[in-house]
Amino acid sequence: MLSIMAFACNQSFGQSFLDRLKKKAKETVEEKIINKTGNGIDNGMDKGIEKAGGAIKGNKSGKDESNHESSGNSNADMPKGNEKMQMNSSYAKYDFVPGEQVIYAADFKEDRSGELPQDWNSNGNAIVSTLSGSEVNWLRIMQRTLVLSSNTKTFGTDFTMEFDLMMQYKRNGWVVPNLNFGFLATGKYATTDNILLKTLSAGTHLFQVILHPADEGRSNVKLESFVGLSTYFDSGQKKFPDIENMYGKKVHVAVQIQKERFRLWMDGIKVYDVPKALPIDAKLNQVFFQMEDSSYDNEDIGVYVSELKIAKGIPNLRHKLIDEGKFSTTGILFDVNKASIKPESAGVINEIAEVLKQNPNVKIMITGHTDSDGDEKANQSLSEKRAERVKAALITVHGIPSDRLQSSGKGESVPLGSNSTKDGKAQNRRVEFTKL
Questions:
Q1: What CA–CA distances, in Å, run from 216 to 68, 129, 436?
Q2: According to CATH, where is 2.60.120.200 located in the chain?
Q3: Alpha helix positions (H), 52-205
Q4: 76, 217, 239, 283: most buried, per Cβ within 10 A?
C-alpha cells in the first residue's frame, strides 16, 4: 500500500549495470528536452507537439494571450472555432456546474517557458510549454515527476476543479505511463513542503485519480482515498475505453466534491459519481499531478495540463436565480477573444434552461463581464457579444422564448476580484443572470 500511496516518484531503478545505463540515458533525454528552445521538440510526434520557448502560430512574441479578453490584435491566424455553441453528443447531458467563487487559477501565462511555474514545487521535470495551434500555455509533466501547485488556500467541503489535458503518445507497443492527479490535506505541512514530494501520505488526507491509458479498449481508471496510511476508499480498476478517443486532443476535465461525494467528467463524459469517496472532515488544500515511469523516452510522451481553476461552494442555481434574483458564473467559457461558446459550458447553460422551463413566467437579463486585459472598448464590445451568444444558445438549443431574454455587457467596469491577480481575473470573466 505504501508503494501505491507514495507513487515512487524518485524510485531507484534496478541496480544492474544495464538498468543504470537505461536510467542515465533517460536523464540525458530529459536534460535535452529542458534545454530545448526555439525549434522545440518535433521528433516524429503529432503536429500538436510542444515548441518549448518558441512562438505559437498567430503570436509572434511567444507570449500567451489566452486570458486577455481582447488584445486588439488580428485573430486571422487563430484556429477557426464554430460560431455556435458546440453541443456535441458527449456534452448533451453534461451537468457539471462550477463553484461560485474562484479561489485559485493557474494559466501559466506569465511563467517563463521551459521552467517550472513560479511557486510550484516538483521532484522531477515539469516545464511551461507552448503547443502549435494553441493560444494558451501548458505545463508539460515529464515521467517520474510529481508536481504540487502554488495554492495555499483551503478548498472547503464543497468545491470544483477544472483543467484542460492533452495526451500525446508516440507508441511502439510498450505500456504508456499512468497519469495521476488529485488532492491533499497537508495538515501541519505547507502546501509545497518537500516532504510531500517524498511521500504524499505525509499529510492527513490523500485523494487521487489514476488514469491508465492503453489501446484496444484496455484503458482503465481508479479512485483511491487515504486517511494517513489507512485506505478509506478504493474503487478498484474500472474500464474506461473512452479515453482512447481523447489522445492528441484537448480534453476538459471537471471535478466536483460535495462533502463526501466525488464526481468526475472528462470531455463531457461522466466517469465517476461516488457518494462516499472521501471523509467529510478532510481539509483539502492542495492539488497535485504525477506522471509515473515507463520504458519510453520522455520525448515520446507528451502530457500537458492548462487552465487550472478551483472554485469553492456549489451553487443551488434555482435558488440563486429564482429566490435571490441573480446567478453569476465563471462556468460559461469562450474561445480566445471571441464570443464562440466552448462545449464545456453546456452544463451551466443546460441548468439555466431547465430553471427557465420550470418557471415559465420568469424573464432574465444576461450580462457579460470581462477582466481588464486588453482595450477597454474592445472588452465592452466583447462582453455584449458574449451575452448575446448565450441568449441565442438558450433560444436555439433549448427553445426558450426570445421575449423572456435580454442581454447586455459591462466589459471590465464591474470587477468582483482584483485584476492584478490570476484568481481575481478568473472571477471577473463571468456571465450574470438577473431576474427581471
A1: 41, 30, 53
A2: 2-51+98-312
A3: 194-198
A4: 283
In the chain the first and final C-alpha atoms are separated, in Å, by 57
CA distance 222 to 343: 26
Sign of the Cα torsion 406, 410, 416, 422 reads: positive
- Could you tell me which of 311, 182, 176, 145 has the C-alpha nearest to residue 246? 176
C-alpha cell, 412: 471590465
CA nearest to 348, candidates 46, 85, 139, 84: 85
Class of domain 2-51+98-312: mainly beta
- Rounded to whole angstroms, how far apart are CA atoms 217 and 363? 47
The CATH code of the domain at 317-435 is: 3.30.1330.60
Rounded to whole angstroms, the Cα distance separating 201 from 426 reads 31
The C-alpha cell of 340 is what? 464562440
Q: Of 414, 416, 404, whose CA–CA distance to 359 is shortest?
A: 404
Amino acid identity of 236?
G
pTM for the full predicted model = 0.80
pLDDT digits (tens, 9 = 90+) for 18-57: 444 444 444 444 444 444 432 333 333 334 434 433 322 2
